[in-house]
Design brief:
By secondary structure, this protein is α/β, with parallel strands linked by helices. The protein has helices at 12-25, 38-47, 63-86, 90-104, 124-136, 193-216, 229-235, 237-248, 260-278; strands at 28-29, 32-33, 56-57, 60-61, 151-154, 157-161, 168-170, 178-184, 221-227, 254-257. Helices cover 47% and strands 13% of the residues. A hairpin with a 2-residue loop joins strand 3 (56-57) and strand 4 (60-61).
């Protein structure tokens, strides 16, 4: 999923309204995503001791109310029509993983999940992402598991070092063109704090990268890949809404949901290669980085 340009330049006040209204009214009800009416938004403002005339003035919706309603409608339609159908369960992810593995004959890392017993298996989404990057990175190195913090340098010294280790960096975690996080939860039975923390970790990364862009004019692309139908759709609709919000707030460049990686990851990797060549970076097919 790429952001809709209509919502990319909204103010932080707009997003404060989105969050406050979503929290008070709710994100979802049963199998639907809530799209608050103008009256519901005005009532919520009154309940929160805010000024309802910011939503309805002289009996008419304000410009803010109209923009908020357009966004809420977009968010709900995007989740129901595009995101939900792409989310996979473990069996579907396993089949797709095996199919791509047979087609790609990969040399990249295919890590195991952290489950035990019969649930122990390859980390399917991570494996899919790694294989598709390897197949489309045209000999450039890629660090599929950085064991160090992402660092941006200038004139021989660090200008920013991110707070967290990311799940992957192209081509390296030092002055990367792109970094990404992968959140796959095929075997969770509840939406717990560990899953919620995964969303907020990506938000933290995005806030730091946004500050880097605005202060140092250095652009590092930031991606999030998530999957698991039960976790995100059945139990975590509110967090799907938060992820869509995060995307349009500019804290992540793209979010890939489940099987969406098959179509979009090759395009994204090829874009990285173009950027690498434009920066004068060289491909190193035998680089040890590609084996990490």
């Amino acid at each position: 999923m790429r952001p809709d340009p209509r919502f990319l330049k909204k103010s932080k006040t707009f997003w404060a309204c989105v969050r406050s209204l979503s929290q008070h009214i709710g994100y979802s009800k049963k199998d639907s995503i809530i799209v608050p009416s103008v009256k519901m938004m005005a009532d919520a403002f009154s309940d929160l001791n805010l000024d309802p005339s910011k939503i309805i003035l002289n009996g008419q919706p304000t410009a803010l109310a109209t923009q908020l309603h357009e966004y809420f409608l977009f968010r709900a339609n995007g989740i129901v029509k595009n995101i939900m159908p792409n989310l996979m369960n473990a069996n579907e992810a396993r089949k797709l993983f095996k199919k791509i593995k047979a087609e790609c004959a990969p040399k990249c890392p295919l890590p195991m999940n952290k489950q035990k017993g019969t649930k122990k298996a390859e980390a399917y989404l991570t494996g899919l992402v790694n294989m598709l990057i390897e197949a489309n990175c045209d000999g450039f190195p890629c660090n599929y598991n950085p064991l160090e913090l992402t660092t941006i340098t200038k004139d021989g010294q660090p200008v920013r070092t991110l707070a967290r280790r990311v799940d992957g960096a192209f081509p390296t975690p030092v002055n990367p063109i792109a970094v990404w996080e992968i959140k796959e939860y095929y075997y969770t039975t509840t939406f717990g704090s560990r899953v919620a923390d995964g969303v907020y970790e990506s938000l933290l990364d995005g806030i730091e990268i946004e500050e880097l862009r605005s202060s140092e004019h250095i652009d590092v692309k930031h991606y999030l890949m998530v999957d698991a139908y039960f976790t995100w759709w059945v139990k975590g609709k509110a967090y799907l809404c938060r992820i869509v919000d995060m995307l349009h707030m500019g804290y992540v460049d793209e979010v890939l949901f489940g099987r969406e990686v098959i179509k979009e990851m090759p395009r994204i990797a090829r874009d990285w290669v173009k950027s690498a060549r434009a920066q004068g970076k060289q491909a190193h097919p035998t680089s040890e980085l590609s084996k990490e």
